[in-house]
Specification:
The protein is of the alpha/beta class and 330 residues long. Helices cover 53% and strands 12% of the residues. α12 links the parallel β6 (219-223) and β7. α1 packs antiparallel against α3 and α8 crosses α9 (141-149). The longest helix is centred in the middle third of the chain and has 25 residues, at 151-175. The two termini are 24 Å apart.
Length: 330
C-alpha cells in the first residue's frame, strides 16, 4: 500500500532530483530507484511498482498535474458523451511505454528475489477523477450525480476504461509483474446496487479477461470501504480480496470461506503510535486469521496507503512484528 513515498527521506531526495512527480514516474531509472528503496531498507516480501493510478487518463489526453496541497488535477475534464467518444483508445505499449519500461527495469533489479506487483485503478475510480477533473473535496459528488443523471454516459466511459485497463495490466504482466492489483479506491462511496452495477461488474470483467489470457496470474481486488460486499468481490474469480481496516476479519472469513486469499488490514494510523501499540495491533490482526483457522492465505498489509507522516523506524517495527507473529501462525 504505497511502499515508497514521502515518509522516506531517500524518496524525497530522488523526487527532488526528478523534478516533478510525473517526471519521476516517467523515468524507468527513477521509478526503479524509489521502488527498491523500501525493499532495501525494510526487507519486504514483495515490491510494488512505483507509478500512479491516473496514468491512464493522463495518456488519454487529460494532462495530469500534481499541485502542492491540492493533489492530482487534470487540465481537461470529462463533461458529456461527446467528450467520452472523443477519448482515444490508447495502446498502453505506446502511450504508457514508460510504465512498461519501469516494470522491466525493476524486474531485472529484483533478479527473482521477491515478486513484483503491478496495478491499475478500477474503472469507477478512474472515472471519478476524470469527471471531477482531479481530486475532490465533496466525495466526488459530480461523478456520483452521473449515476442518476447520466447512467448510460457513465457506462460508456466505464466500458472504455475497462478495455484499456485489461490491456494495461496485460502489458505490465508481460513486462514482468507477477501479480496485478486493482485499486477501487472510491467504490465505498456507492450504494449496494450502484456498486454492483457501476464498479463490481467492470472489475469482474477485468479479472475474467486477464485470467482468460493468463490463467495463473494472481489478481488482487481492493475496494476501500467495500466491507459489505466482500462475498460478491470474492466471487468475481479474483485470487485475493484486499480489506481495509474497518472490516471485521472474523465476519469476512465466515462469508467467503476458502474462495480466495485475503490481504490487509492494519489501520495506517497505527504506525503513528508508539512501538508497543504497533506490535500489539499487528499481533491482533494476525491472531484473527489464526484463531479462525484461515489457511487459504493471508497477505499482511495496511488497510490503505501509508501516511507521509509515518516514522520509517515504525515501518521497521511493523516488519519485525509481522515476521515474529506470522512465524507462530505457520
Amino acid at each position: 500500500m504505497r511502499q515508497a513515498g514521502r515518509y522516506l527521506p531517500e524518496y524525497n531526495a530522488t523526487r527532488k532530483k526528478a523534478g516533478s512527480f510525473m517526471d519521476l514516474c516517467r523515468s524507468s531509472q527513477y521509478a526503479c530507484e524509489v521502488t527498491m528503496q523500501p525493499i532495501d531498507r525494510f526487507g519486504l516480501d514483495a515490491a510494488i511498482l512505483f507509478s500512479d493510478i491516473l496514468t491512464i487518463p493522463d495518456a488519454m489526453g487529460l494532462e495530469l498535474n500534481f499541485v502542492e496541497g491540492h493533489g492530482p488535477k487534470f487540465s481537461k475534464q470529462i463533461k458529456d458523451e461527446k467528450e467520452i467518444i472523443n477519448l482515444p483508445d490508447i495502446d498502453p505499449t505506446l502511450e504508457l511505454k514508460y510504465v512498461e519500461e519501469a516494470v522491466s527495469t525493476i524486474k531485472k533489479e529484483l533478479n527473482g528475489s521477491i515478486p513484483l506487483i503491478g496495478f491499475s485503478g478500477s474503472p469507477w475510480t478512474l472515472a471519478c477523477y476524470m469527471i471531477s477533473g482531479g481530486s475532490s473535496k465533496d466525495d466526488f459528488l459530480t461523478a456520483r450525480s452521473w449515476l442518476y443523471k447520466k447512467p448510460k454516459t457513465l457506462e460508456s466511459l466505464l466500458k472504455k476504461l475497462t478495455t484499456i485497463i485489461v490491456d494495461y495490466c496485460s502489458m505490465q504482466h508481460r513486462a514482468g509483474a507477477d501479480i496485478i492489483m486493482l485499486f477501487d479506491t472510491w467504490g465505498g462511496l456507492l450504494g449496494e446496487n450502484q456498486f454492483k452495477k457501476f464498479s463490481l461488474k467492470y472489475m469482474e470483467k477485468i479479472v475474467k479477461d486477464l485470467h482468460k489470457e493468463y490463467p495463473k496470474l494472481p489478481v488482487i481486488l481492493f475496494t476501500k470501504g467495500g466491507g459489505n460486499w466482500v462475498s460478491e468481490i470474492a466471487k468475481t474469480g479474483c485470487n485475493v480480496v484486499g480489506l481495509d481496516w474497518t472490516v471485521d476479519v472474523t465476519s469476512v472469513i465466515k462469508k467467503i470461506g476458502k474462495l480466495c486469499s485475503l490481504q490487509g488490514n492494519l489501520d495506517p494510523s497505527v504506525l503513528l503510535g508508539d512501538k508497543v501499540h504497533i506490535e500489539k495491533e499487528i499481533k491482533s490482526v494476525i491472531d484473527k486469521f489464526t484463531y479462525n483457522n484461515f489457511n487459504t492465505g493471508h497477505i499482511f498489509n495496511l488497510g490503505h496507503g501509508i501516511s507521509q507522516f509515518t516514522p520509517p523506524e515504525n515501518v521497521e517495527c511493523l516488519v519485525e512484528a509481522v515476521k515474529k507473529y506470522s512465524s507462530r501462525a505457520i
